[in-house]
Amino acid sequence: xxxxxxxxxxxxxxxxxxxxxxxxxxxxxxxxxxxxxxxxxxxxxxxxxxxxxxxxxxxxxxxxxxxxxxxxxxxxxxxxxxxxxxxxxxxxxxxxxxxxxxxxxxxxxxxxxxxxxxxxxxxxxxxxxxxxxxxxxxxxxxxxxxxxxxxxx
Length: 153
What we know:
Blueprint: E1 13-14, E2 20-21, E3 30-35, H1 42-53, H2 55-60, E4 63-69, H3 73-83, E5 88-91, H4 96-100, E6 104-109, E7 112-117, E8 120-124, E9 130-135, H5 142-151
């Protein structure tokens, strides 16, 4: 598991629409990296909307927001278009990012067990060091809490 004060992995990624994001492109500014289970579901849509609505304040604070789920680039493109999201979404279809940030866990729904994404957010400084992490996130008020933490010295 990643520890506060440690450098996060430098990973490349596929974004919505299929374009490539180099891990080095995420350095040089604060990064809010949030992991969510699935595009267009109730909780995930609300979380994306909350980050969207505060996006200008995150940018003003020098931060970039990037979402991550196991959905496809095409699914992400539709989600961004429908929700008017001003930030990128990583299509982690091979679970490299999810495993690196240790956000996969066994879950249960209607008696069926499966491996799912645990809603988590990581605040990473411009040098690529983990400053804060939130796991098992509850959506209401979360984006505001991340913004508040970003404003702390």
